[in-house]
Amino acid sequence: MVLRTISEVREAVRQARAAGQSIGFVPTMGAFHDGHLSLMRRAREENDIVVVSLFVNPTQFAPYEDLSTYPRDEENDARAAAAKGVEILFVPESSEIYPDGFATSIHVAGLTEVLDGASRGAHHFDSVATVVTKLFGIVRPDVAYFGQKDAQQVLVVRRVVRDLDLDVRIEVCPIVRETDGLAMSSRNVHLDPEARRQATALNRALDAAQAMHGGGERDSARILRAAQRVLDDAGIHPEYLELRDAETLDPVTSTRRDALLAVAAHIGTTRLIDNHLLKASS
Length: 282
Ligand code: PAF
Description:
Belongs to the pantothenate synthetase family. This protein is an alpha/beta fold.
């Protein structure tokens, strides 16, 4: 069932709750791929009712970014969500989420200024934190599901939930990859065949670093060089390629603690991100 207004979603959720049903929630910007579907599958397995939001949140795009060309296919998305057993697809207009006079913004200090925050501007994660908090307020889920592909987003959302004592559990699902390793992304549809080939170097670079770490290397600079070599060979100049503490996102000089190895790059005109978690124990 596609619902477009906050009051409709509130009423549907109120009825489900009155019947003692648990609510699983997957916030998305649509153009579903297997990554989104894996979140819905997990939500379906673990809850009585699954709510998915489809809202291309305009405020989290910088003026120079791809808001106007961001892939949109509501009809297909509605079919795919229904096939996964999603009860409610919430597709609000922008004015429903941001009525005239909307003036609130949530800022998570410390986690939002680095990596994608540095590349895209601090507004990006402020906007994500704000819209996710608003969606939590509308849906009031027991559990919300996010993909590890947006590792920094996951940390930001977890921190909002902790700091504001929001009554929702956050579950994180693994990155879903194409057979050649490319992380699934709605933006992959913009890659032409040459860019599509080049894009596989992102995961190969992370794999090379992971292999080095797995072999016992703990020096961040050497691990990063292994990844950088693969990117160089593929002619990719990353926006960033960094190793940071997996919880705080502080820079690290060694991988003796769990570290997030994150990369962002423009492949052709498409900006892609990917990451691997380097576990201290591996
Ligand atoms: O990951 C996304 O698709 C978006 O950032 C989210 C969480 C739906 C907020 O707009």
